[in-house]
Amino acid sequence: MHHIPTARLHNFDSTGWNWGYKESNVTTLTDDPAISKVLPTRANIIEQLKALVKDAKRNDALFFCYSGHGSQVINEDEDEITTEKDGEDQTICPVDYERRGMIVDDLLNEIIVKPLPMGCRLTVLFDCCNSGSALDLLYMYGADGRIEDGANPDDPKKSPADVVYLSACRDDQGAMTDFVDGPPTGALSHCFVDALTKQPEQSYLDVLLNTRRELAGKGYNQVPQLSSSHPIDTSLQFII
């Protein structure tokens, strides 16, 4: 697991660009005991994700960041007709995944997207390999801000909530590790924070493109992806 993104994003919230979340409303799972005593096991991750969306209501603002290992598995469900065009499910890997299993995108969507009501906002950042469509959201955007991947209007994974997801890379790519003063850092998390530090007020498209530029400037070829639960105007200001 990458340790620094958790601390860096938290510090960024507190001092660099106030996202408005109270300390008492922030839960951290990490394998670094200096930051949290709660390990990101499969059971703990699922439990905390359910807690995040429990009792969510209109005008609530939620944020979830995952920085760690990601992978892919063969999709065994019929959803490959719609969301899984590559025939694979994207996954995140808890610290105990070898014993308890990975968490697939279908389950992530079921836990944190499907329960949300209309008018509730959830912003998600995944800094891991193969993460392009790891929330199974229906609309993906290109560099021009237009929808690249459209949805089937009858898809069961459509959601009335305002869910926006930024991934570290495409589904077929790896997510690189950067080094800030020595310790390993997820390159996406580092570049995302750098992009917003340089220009705190940006549109959704600007955040996508500037994060890509930061990564390219460091020599990384991973391409972050922006997707949403329903069509959005990517020229609107990025908010969490």
Structural write-up:
By secondary structure, this protein is of the alpha+beta class. It has a single domain, classed as 3-Layer(aba) Sandwich (Rossmann fold). The chain is 27% helix and 20% strand. The chain is built from 6 helices and 11 strands. It has helices at 4-16, 42-53, 97-100, 105-113, 187-198, 204-217, and strands at 61-67, 69-74, 88-93, 103-104, 121-127, 139-141, 147-149, 162-167, 177-179, 184-186, 226-228. It has a 6-stranded mixed β-sheet with strand order 1-5-8-11-6-7, sandwiched between helices. A 3-stranded antiparallel β-sheet has the order 2-3-4. A hairpin with a 5-residue loop joins strand 6 and strand 7 (147-149). Helix 1 packs parallel to helix 5 and helix 5 crosses helix 6. It is globular. It starts with a helix and ends in a 12-residue tail after the last strand. The model is unreliable at 1-5 and 12-17 (pLDDT under 50).
> What is the CATH level 1 assignment?
Alpha Beta
Please outline the major beta sheet. Answer: 6 strands, mixed
What proportion strand?
15-25%
Strand order of the largest sheet: 1-5-8-11-6-7
Q: How is the CATH topology named?
A: Rossmann fold
SS-based class: alpha+beta
Return residue spans where pLDDT drops below 50 for at least 5 consecutive residues: 1-5, 12-17
| Cα gyration radius (Å) | 17 Å
What is the chains' assembly state? single chain
Kindly state the mean pLDDT as a whole number?
A: 87
How many individual β-strands?
Answer: 11
| Count of structural domains | 1
Q: How far from one another are the termini?
A: 24 Å
Helix percent band: 25-40%
* CATH architecture grouping: 3-Layer(aba) Sandwich
Following the backbone from N to C, one meets helices and strands in this order, namely HHEEEHEHEEEEEEHHE
Instruction: Count helical runs.
Output: 6
